[in-house]
Design goal:
homotetramer; 245 residues; alpha/beta; Rossmann fold; 29% strand; globular
C-alpha cells in the first residue's frame, strides 16, 4: 500500500499545437495539466507520453514501469499503431490500470477492451453538465458531495454503446436534455478501467477541483494488485488436482 | 412473440471430416446434431452454415435473416475471415443473438465481443462435470433441476478470462478439482450473448437432453427485441432537446 | 410460453377516494387504469386488489394464482400488514414477478427485497421528465425509441438508495436538474423485480402510451419460469454426490 | 489513506464455551483468533464484542468507532436483538464495512441487507474445499495464487439464495460434488459488504494463512470512504437546481 503509484499520462497532443484557443486553455498540453495536479500528490510518480514520440512514448519499458495509464485522444485515434494498442491491451489484462478520458471513448484501446462500438450522442454547445454521484461509497467518489457541476461542457449523451459497467459511479445531467453514464468502472483481466466523460479541449475542465479529485481517486482505485500469480499457459493441458477414476 | 425465431447454426465442421471417432459421434456434423434438435421446435426455423462454404455460409443475406446465431469452432479459429467476423460483430450490436459453445471461447468473434483473452484451464480426461444452476429463475434454466451431470467431458476451468457476466447462470464442478463459470449471459449493443461451456467433439454431449434444453432456452432468451430505434449517427452532432441559454 | 400470464394489480386506493383531483384523473382508481390497459392484452388475465379488502386482497389463494404482481402505494405503506408483506416476499422468492411503481419505492415489500433504505430526492413541481433507454435491446424497452417524455411529473432524483440494479434500463432527466435510475431490474430468489419510477397520482401518467408499453413489457419479462425445482430444505444436511474418502 | 482502520470482531461466542472440541481449536474464541491475526497488522486497530455483553457489545459508541465490523454467528442468530440489528444495518448504509463469515449467512443482519432467504445446501463431513480466485485483480484476492485449499471444511453449496454479487471473487469446489460462490462483494448504501464462506467452528480454518490473508484484504477493501456528504432528508422536497418554467 505504501509504494508510489507510477502514473503515465498519455495525450494525443495535437489540438494544443494547432489551435491557439486550445493552447490558451492548456499551455502545457492536456497531459501537462493532468500531470501537474497528479504530480502534487506524494504517493504518485508521474510521467507523460504523446503520440508523436517514438512508439507514441509507450515503449515496453515505459509500460512495464506504469501502474496506471491515463488516456486522452480525439482527432487522431487512427494514428495510434495497432501494435502499441495491443501492447497496452496486454498490460491492462496483466493488471495495469487504465483511465480513459472524454473523447478517448472512441480510442482503439477503449473499443478493444469494451468489445462494443462505444458510440454516443454529442454536441458542442458549451452547456452546463451536472454529475450526480450514484455510488457515494465508492473510492472514486471520495470527497465529492451529492453532485458537482461543470459550467461549460461538450454534451455526451445516451445511448452510450458500452457494456453495462461493473460499477456506475456518475450519471450526468445536461442542460440540453440528455443524460450520460459519465463514470464507469470495469475489471478486464487483472486490470481496472475507469471511463470518465468530462474533458473537452476547449474548456478548462481539467483545471476544475472536482474533476482533479475524481482523477486522483481513480488512480488510487485503479492501481494493480500486487503479487498476482503467473498466468496459466492456455495452450497446455492442466493435470487434474484430484485423482480421477 | 408469436413469429418464428430464425436460427443459424454455424460449425467449423472439420473434426467430423478428419476424425472417424468424431464422425461416429456426430455423423451429420455437430451443426447437424444441433440443427436436428432445434428444428423439432415449432417456433424455430433453423439453417446451418460451415467454414468451407463461400463467406463461411454467413453472407449478408443469411445474417440479415438470422435472429440467433450459434457458433461452434475449435481447430480453425484463424481461418475465419476478419471481414466475416466484423459482419457478425456488427449484427450482434444491432440485436442478433449469439450463442457461443464450448471451444468457441477462443473464436475471433467471442474474443472481439468480450474484449479479453478468453483463456482458461483445460484438460481432456473424460471426467465427470456437474453443472449447478445458480439462477434457477432465469429463462435459460427453465425446466432444469438444481443441477445436471455430463458423464464425460473436457474440463474447462477457472480462471476464465472473461468480463464478469451480466448474469451467471451455471457453475460447473469437475471431478479433477476445478470449477468453471459455464453459463454466462451478456448484453452487447442491442444483442444478447450466451456462452455455454459443454460440448467437446469426442463426447455425445449435444445428444444429451439437458444440454439440448439449455440451448433451446438460450435461443428463446437471445432472440432480438423487435422495433429497435434507428441508431444515431455518431459522427453528427445532436441538437439540444431543451432551449439553451 | 403460450399460457396466459396472471396479473394482479394492487393499489392502496386512498388518494382516489379522498381527493377529487386524483379521482378526476383516475376515476376507476390507479389499479383500474392499469388493469384496463393490461386487460386489453390477449395473453394477460388481470385482477385487482386494494388495501381495504380483507388481507389487502392478497390472500394465499390470490397470490398462488398470480404470476406477476403490480404494486402502487404511497400514503399508507405502514398500513400494510407485515404478515401480508412476508407472504408477498415469500412468493417473489418462489418466482412470482413483482413490478413496483413510483412511490412504491418506500413500500415495505420493496424495502425488504432491496435491503436498503430506498430513499431518494423528490419534488412535486409538474416539471418535464425524459426517460432515456440505456439498454435498447432489453425486453422491457421493446417498441420504445431512444427516449420518451412525460410532460408533467413528480421529480424523483439521485441518489436513490438501492442496490445497483442487475440491469439498468432507463435513466430519467428532469427539467429541474436531476437524474434518476428510473427503470431497474432485479432477480431475487427465483423472482424478477422491476422498479419503474413514473406515476404520480395527480398526473395522467398511466394513460400515456409509452408508460403502458413499459408496464406491458415488464409483465412479460417478469413472468415466472416454469418447472422450477423443489427448494432444498435449508435445515437438513445434503448427502455428498461423490464418494468421500 | 494513512489513518488506522478501526475493526470490531463480533462473535456469538457460545460454541467455544459449551463444546470442549471447539474450545480446543479456538481457546480464545473465534473472535479472539481473528482479532489476534488482525491485531498484528500495523494499520488496524482491533476490538472484539460478543453476544452476551450488554447490547451485544455493539453500543452506539462502539459502532460509531467502527470502520469495519466482522460478524460470526451460528446457533443463536435469533438471540440477536432486532434493535441492535437495526443499528448495525443503519451504520452499514452510512458507510461502515461489514464482513460476514461462514454461518453468518443466516444472521439477521445479513438477511436484512441481502433481501433474500440466504439459504444454501450444507453438510458436515470434513471434506476438502478448494477456493478458486475468479477475479485475481480484485483487492481481496491480493497475495493469493490461482486457488487455495482448506483440508477439512463444512460444505456450503449452491444454490445460495443471495442477490448476484456486485463482484464474485471466489468460487469453491468441494470433494463431495458441489460448488459455492464463497467470496461475494456488495455495495449497500454507502457501505461495503463481503461474505466469505470458510470458517466452521470445529476446524482450524481461521488459523490458516490464506484465510487470514483474505480477511485482512477484505478489511482494507471494506473501510469507509471518507468525507461522505450529509444524507438528504427523504421526507422533505428538494428545490429545483434549474429554473422551471
Amino acid at each position: 500500500m505504501s509504494a508510489e503509484i507510477k502514473v503515465t499520462v498519455w495525450n494525443e497532443y495535437l489540438h494544443e499545437l494547432k489551435d491557439p484557443a486550445v493552447a490558451a486553455v492548456y499551455p502545457q498540453g492536456i497531459h501537462g495539466a493532468i500531470a501537474g495536479f497528479l504530480g502534487a500528490e506524494k504517493d504518485f510518480s508521474v510521467r507523460t507520453a504523446v503520440l508523436r514520440e517514438p512508439e507514441h512514448g509507450l515503449s515496453e519499458e515505459v509500460l512495464a514501469q506504469t501502474d496506471v495509464l491515463i488516456w486522452w485522444g480525439h482527432m487522431a485515434h487512427d494514428q495510434v499503431e495497432d501494435s502499441i494498442v495491443d501492447r497496452v491491451y496486454q498490460r491492462v489484462l496483466e493488471g495495469m490500470g487504465l483511465i480513459v478520458l472524454h473523447s478517448g471513448h472512441f480510442s482503439k484501446i477503449f473499443r478493444k477492451l469494451m468489445g462494443t462500438s462505444c458510440g454516443l450522442r454529442w454536441r458542442e454547445a458549451g452547456e452546463k453538465e451536472r454529475l450526480w454521484v450514484v455510488e457515494q461509497g465508492h473510492p472514486i467518489a471520495q470527497g465529492l458531495g451529492h453532485y458537482f457541476e461543470i459550467p461549460q461542457t461538450e454534451m455526451y449523451g445516451e445511448r452510450f454503446d458500452i457494456p453495462a459497467p461493473d460499477t456506475l459511479v456518475f450519471i450526468s445531467w445536461y442542460a440540453g436534455g440528455e443524460v450520460f453514464r459519465s463514470g464507469c468502472c470495469y475489471q478486464r483481466g487483472q486490470g481496472k478501467i475507469f471511463y470518465f466523460a468530462p474533458g473537452h479541449e476547449t474548456y478548462p475542465i481539467y483545471h476544475q477541483k472536482e474533476v482533479q479529485q475524481v482523477i486522483k481517486n481513480a488512480v488510487r482505485w485503479a492501481k494493480p494488485v500486487s503479487g498476482l500469480p503467473q498466468p496459466v499457459d492456455p495452450f497446455r493441458p492442466c493435470p487434474p488436482l484430484e485423482k480421477l477414476d
